[in-house]
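Request: Give me one sample?
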Amino acid sequence: MLASDDIDRIRHLVSIVADADGEQPLNEDATLALAGDDPAVSHHLLDEAGELIGYAQSNARHGTAQLLVHPLRRRRGHGGRLLLDVAGHGVWAFGDLPGARRFATTRGLAERRRLLVMERPLEPPSGAVFEGVRPFDPASEAEQLLAVNAAAFDWHPEQAHFSRADLDARMAEDWYDPAGLLVSADADGLTGFHWTKRHPDGRGEVYILATHPRAQGTGLGRRLLAAGLEHLAATGSATVHLYVEASNARAVELYERAGFAVVHRDVLYAPDPRSSDDR
């Protein structure tokens, strides 16, 4: 577990890198993990003359890592040192910036996953009512929601492991709005949910959209999506964005039909098996 002063130093470095690159170098999971005690998470700090100049975080459960180097300390081998610290994990390049691509290719890393950021404007709220869609009841439905998530994302390296601790941590965040976590149910329990998020700058987000396999192909995903967009519009959001795996063609098609377009890409780089010696 990180000491509080180290957390502050990492956050300061993150802000410097974000200002220089125009991209946040750590995603939400990694940011929350700074103050957590997850045994699957490892932290690697790189100091020079008493100054934090680099940081890497790996997550053994996800098999991925994130790393960053101070903008004024790059091209000096520091990134390579941090990469060795997280060896065996794929490394995220948020925004897939040219410098990150060069860093990856010169070290024999190739693209393994592509995460699309899609966005669309929001129309003013219509007042539409979506039958069977209602707010989530955390007192009685938490385990059902986690079960729907696990069934819907059983193929996903990160989302499949979304736990009760993850749920509780996000519900404790300032942005959490109980009215913005919408669910649907049948006689057997929850069938799907749309968790919306409103950012401090007013942007809306399709945070998680999930339907249980028994309800897929019924139009439930479209209805939950529409209900969540209506909620975000009613809160004053003018735009909405989301993250989706490029390989998830069914979800990408759903969002395209709902008016979303790709505005950004994140890439996970990992060793290229074709470059290994199989002899």
In short: The mean pLDDT is 96. The CA atoms of residues 144 and 190 lie 6 Å apart. The radius of gyration is 20 Å.
